[in-house]
Structure formats: structure tokens, C-alpha cells
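Deliverable D5.2: sample structural annotation.
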Amino acid sequence: MTLDQATRLRRLAADVRSRARVIAVTSGKGGVGKSNIALNIAIAASRVGRRVVLIDADLGLANLDVLCGLSSSAGLADVIAGKRRLSDVALATGYGIDLIPGASGIAYMADLPDDDRTRFLAEMQTLEQTSDVIVIDTGAGVARNVVKIAAAADDCLVVTTPDPTSITDAYAAVKLISREREHGTISLVVNQASSAREASATAARIISVAGRFLGLPVQYAGFVLSDHYLSRAVRSRRPLLAAFPASPAALCIKKLQSRFEKLQPAAAGAGFITKLKKLFGR
């Protein structure tokens, strides 16, 4: 075998990749920092050499383009309507990731006509085969489409804060997601924590109740400290990891992402889109 032949074989082997790992970031209620965590986890994954696509699937209050200092004239609504391809609406953020912008005000996926939903899922399947990691920022709350998307992901990160109402809503989200067949790993992220101890205690409450009443092993992925640098980053329309990479919250997010880096690659079997079709009964 010549050197050139060996090089070509190595390149071909590198191109034979399993499907992307899909991480859904969700929450039982709004205002817990879900979108910022999704954005910065995606950036952290790209910094360890992964090809990352971030999808703004909060179809009611899409704002990831704003957090990146970008503006978009097209998004998921155009893809669902068949006017654009996902590759047409993808934005190069300048932070190592591509962003698929959302579409404020469009109908939930569960309510879409069959043809529109089928077209959208076909586009998503192509994306799943050409990326290493797909991070999906779902809508907040427990609407049907949010639960279905979260359950179809390989990893579902449920974001909560130490606030009692947030804990209650996070448990409700965990409960509904766990009822879906073939759901992926469900993990908790405690955001806006005053300390590691407070975060651990918050997660323990949800994990204990989920184990007792649902028989469900919920993982504790980690925490993000309350940090005034985050609000400064939002006002500057820059991601936290870009604006203040050494801030306490940024360091927490890097640790959070590293937890997924240590997991085994996604299996070559049923992927996100296959499971999503089943969950929507299509």
C-alpha cells in the first residue's frame, strides 16, 4: 500500500461517522436560563473539535440569534413551509457553531399539517448525518411538542434553578418526558446556584422524588453559578464563553460540557428523527 493510498483510506475512515449526538436543553418553566446554557454548551463542544449545530426550536420565543448578535430574515418557519432548506437558513455565528434560527409565533410542530412536518423531519435527518453534535434549545414548559423533542434526544438536559417553583416545574417536565417510549438519558442542570452545595441539594430533591415515584434514574449533570457576567454578556449580545470565558458561570459550563465529552458516542441505531417520528405517531 502506498502512502497516498493509506492517506485516502484514513480520510475515508474519518468520513464514516455515526449519527450526531443530539442534546435537548429544556425546562419546566421560562426564565431559568435555558437558552444561554444551550448556546454556551454548543460553543464549548465546538472548542474540543466537534462539528456543532445549534437549533432554536423555541418556536414561540426564539432568541438565540439575538444572543449571538445576529439577525435573521429566515428560519425554521421557512423550512417547514418548504420555502428554504436548513442549509439556506443556517447562520455562521463566528463562535465555531452554526445556528438554525427559530421562528417566533409559528404553530407547534404537533399541530403542523402532515406534509409540512414530514418535509421538516427529512431536512433534520440530513443534518443528523452531517454533524457531530446537535444542541436543541426547546421551548419552555411542557407543551406536547416540547416533550416529544426532549424525549427523542440522546441526552435531555432539564434546567432548573433552586427556586421552589422551578423545582416543581422541572419535576413535571421530567415526569412527562419519562412517559415517552425510548426516551434518552434525562439529566438535571441547576442554574443560578449560589454554591455547589445549594445546587447539589436542589438536584437531590428532584432525583429522589423521581426515583421514588417514577422509578426513574435521573442524572445530575452539574450546575452553573449565579454570575453577573452573564447579564453583561447578554446586554453585549455575545455568548458568555466568548465575552467572559474565565467567569465563574463560563467555567461551570465548560465542566458541564466535558461530562458529555466522556460519554460513549451515540449508537448507530435509531436516531433522533426516527424516534421523533415514532413519538409523533408518524
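Annotation notes: The chain has a mean pLDDT of 86. The longest strand covers residues 185-193.
The annotation will be released with the project's public dataset once the embargo ends.
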